[in-house]
Structures are given as structure tokens and as C-alpha cells.
Design brief:
single chain, alpha+beta, 1 helix
Length: 61
């Protein structure tokens, strides 16, 4: 009955820190902006902080 977990795409240093370090969410996947390519281009090459986007999951219990 109801939701048991939450999934988030963490794209800022603040949300990455809070969700992972304070709330104990676990990293499921991570992509570094400098290595991401789409159709031969790196659209996120100018993003330096944070260096990556993180997919994280946490329990709602």
C-alpha cells in the first residue's frame, strides 16, 4: 500500500550531498558530463560543478 521508494536525478551539488550523505540514498548510476556524447557532440561540456549527474534511490520507510 503506497510508495516504498523514491528515485531522483540529482543534477546539483546540493541535492547530491543531501540525498546521498544526509538521507542515505544509494547511487544507481552516474554519468560524467565531460564524457557524455550525443550525436558526436558533448552538449554538457561547460558544466564543471557538479562533474556528473547521479541517479539515486532511497527508501520512504
Amino acid at each position: 500500500a503506497g510508495f516504498r521508494s523514491v528515485v531522483g536525478e540529482l543534477s546539483s551539488s546540493a541535492t547530491q550531498h543531501l540525498c546521498i550523505n544526509k538521507f542515505g540514498h544509494t547511487v544507481q548510476a552516474e554519468i560524467a558530463y565531460e564524457s557524455f556524447m550525443y550525436e558526436g557532440e558533448n552538449p554538457f561540456s561547460k558544466i564543471k560543478e557538479p562533474p556528473s549527474i547521479i541517479l539515486a534511490e532511497g527508501d520512504l520507510k
